[in-house]
Design a protein that fits this description.
Elements: H1 8-20, H2 25-39, H3 43-54, H4 59-86, H5 89-109, H6 113-129, H7 131-141, H8 147-173, H9 177-198, H10 223-226, H11 237-242, H12 244-273, H13 278-303, H14 308-324, H15 332-360, H16 366-395, H17 397-419, H18 432-439
């Protein structure tokens, strides 16, 4: 090793520091609340097992309760987005988290089947209502050039928390399922406490707010920077539905979400038909969580300043053909290889897609746009079990996996057609840098200047420099 080459440990430390530096303090508190919340995600994972094993209900009843839980998520996706825009991100998160804690604890004491089903709807609604607000707040407080990295770190926290909670829940359940319900309620309350104590409101002022003496529109943007969107009418759900480009992204994400849901619905059925045990499935699906925890941050450092077009096309193909490989799997090892392929697609897609969603969303309509995006996942969780089960029953598992490859190909073509004409600056979308500065109390008071039109841009993504301003260098405090 030459004297000019830093040792591997030094390079690793530098890479780790670069992965977490430059993000505002509020982001790390939001990240901490996400991690705490996911550490307590016991009930959704073990609800079917609780109902069939502990309560003795049939599998069909457990499926009905699961569907009602998902139905609550569908309602919450839209309602949570509207509330985040109308009343603010912070109140929406607090109300949703408090309602989740109460409803989850209540579900643990329910014994009547009708009562269990009714409370399951409440749990599904409350637990999903905060998601649009969390994503909108993240877009508010993180600079555009750091958003892919921020969403990646958040996704990493979600999967790390889920991996720990899934392992811990099995041990806790040995002492009674009620402990799971009360434990989740306690951790959700801890999450709400973090939001209450550490996270200020980040919602930009409503469009048309009175301009200040400095000529800004009230959120730190000048008329020259924001353009006509600043004085536009408030965004409604009808506005979202009429946004053809954004709704195309939602539709393409729905296709990919239907694929990813098959991992938890159709893949265990397919493995069971091939003679594999539930322990084999547990081993295979664990590959997904392990790879996300190990690779999400390194992969994000590679992709964060690249344009979204190639990344989304590639991730769709990896997802489709990763699930397609399942048709060729005849051993646990081959199933694990298939999981590794579509997991890589998931790792690339998640932060890139979230960055695109924010880019397509008007500043004052981020909550509603995030809600519509979350709705695609909720619809997938409802419909994927029905689609997967029907195809397997009537045509066989191999046809399902071949269909997954076809769906991934369609999604990839869709992204290619949509993004090839995506402009660098979208009409009706305010320049985001100044809005971020206004949403963050620790940001400088000066309005960020827009780069000159002649400045070269190496990719379709925001500024690839990655240079953090002094106000962005707050180290994580949690």
């Amino acid at each position: 090793m030459s004297a000019s080459t830093p040792p591997p440990l030094s390079r690793l430390r530098h890479a780790a520091a670069a992965s977490v530096s430059g993000l505002p303090r509020q982001f790390w508190w939001l990240w901490t609340s996400t991690l705490i919340n996911r550490l307590g995600s016991f009930v959704a994972t073990f609800l079917a097992l609780y109902l069939t094993v502990d309560r003795g209900y049939s599998a069909s009843y457990a499926g009905l309760v699961g569907a009602l839980y998902g139905l609550g998520g569908v309602v919450a996706s839209v309602a949570g987005g509207v509330l985040a825009d109308r009343f603010g991100r912070r109140p929406t998160m607090l109300i949703a988290q408090l309602a989740t804690a109460v409803s989850v604890a209540l579900l643990g004491f329910m014994t009547d089947p009708v009562a269990i089903a009714a409370v399951a709807v409440l749990v599904g609604t409350a637990s999903n209502a905060s998601r649009p607000a969390v994503q909108a707040m993240m877009a508010d407080i993180v600079a555009p050039e750091d958003r892919v990295r921020a969403y990646s770190l958040n996704y990493w926290a979600i999967n790390l928390g889920f991996a720990v909670s899934s392992t811990a829940a099995g041990l806790i359940a040995e002492h009674g399922y009620l402990t799971l319900f009360l434990g989740e309620a306690a951790l959700v309350l801890a999450c709400a406490l973090v939001v209450f104590r550490k996270l200020p409101e980040s919602r930009p002022e409503a469009p048309g707010a009175a301009a200040g003496a400095d000529g800004t529109d009230g959120v730190g943007e000048t008329a020259d920077t924001a353009g006509p969107a600043t004085a536009a009418a408030p965004v409604s759900m009808l506005t979202v539905l009429r946004d053809g480009r954004f709704m195309t992204v939602v539709g393409l994400n729905l296709l990919l979400a239907l694929l990813y849901q098959q991992a938890y619905v159709s893949m265990p059925v397919s493995m069971g038909q091939d003679g594999f045990s539930s322990a084999d499935f547990g081993t295979v699906i664990a590959v997904n969580g392990v790879l996300i925890v190990l690779l999400q941050i390194p992969v994000t450092r590679f992709i964060e300043h690249r344009g979204p077009t190639g990344l989304l096309i590639g991730s769709a193909l990896l997802a489709g053909y990763g699930f397609g490989l399942t048709a060729l799997a005849g051993s646990v090892a081959m199933y694990a290889v298939a999981v590794a392929v579509w997991t890589l697609g998931e790792i690339i897609n998640s932060p890139t897609q979230m960055g695109l969603v924010v880019r397509l969303s008007p500043v004052h309509g981020r909550g509603r746009y995030q809600g519509m995006y979350a709705l695609s996942w909720s619809i997938a969780s409802l419909t994927a079990p029905l689609l997967g089960g029907t195809v397997i029953d009537h045509y066989g598992a191999d046809v399902l996996w071949a269909g997954c490859a076809a769906v991934g190909t369609v999604a990839a073509v869709g992204y290619g057609l949509l993004l090839r004409r995506l402009p660098e600056r979208l009409p009706g979308r305010a320049h985001p840098t100044a809005v971020v500065a206004a949403a963050r109390p620790d940001a400088p008071s000066e309005t960020a200047a827009e780069p000159p039109a002649s400045s070269p841009s190496p990719s379709a993504s925001p500024s690839p420099s990655g240079t953090a301003s002094p106000s962005d260098t707050a180290a994580p405090t949690a």
